[in-house]
Write a structure and sequence with these properties.
This protein is mainly alpha-helical. It has helices spanning about 15-25, 25-50, 50-60, 65-85, 90-110, 115-135, 140-145. The radius of gyration is 19 Å and the shape is elongated.
Amino acid sequence: MLGSHSAEPKLFFPGLAGFYATVSDLWYPMLRITAGATLFMHGWAKLHSGAAPVIGSMVKAGLTPPTAFAYFTIFLETVGAICIVLGLFTRLFAAAIAIEMAIICFVVMMPAGYYRMEATLIWGILFFAIALRGGGPYSLDRAIGKEL
């Protein structure tokens, strides 16, 4: 019966067991850093193009007040993304970014259909998972011994 065994599956190449044991705790920092760095590139582009195009996007989406939404988005996608990469105030920023992604997904993109919102939905779920997990190993949250 599928799922009735509690034991770990056997490795096809048992010689890799030591390698897997050594690197098994790296999966989470890799996801956290990749998600933060990828989001930062979006924020960096917004920062360098200035607030006006972002404000215009907020107006077009019907988000009010558009200026506040624009500056908060730029802040989250730059400072927040860097903090996610570093694992600093991870839960706070990841939760805020997950909310941002939910707004983009369900308010802005949903009217255009599922395939338009799919990527934003996946990113939102990833940041929500990061918010639930926190900084994890290899984070500044762990180094200072405190999380929000």
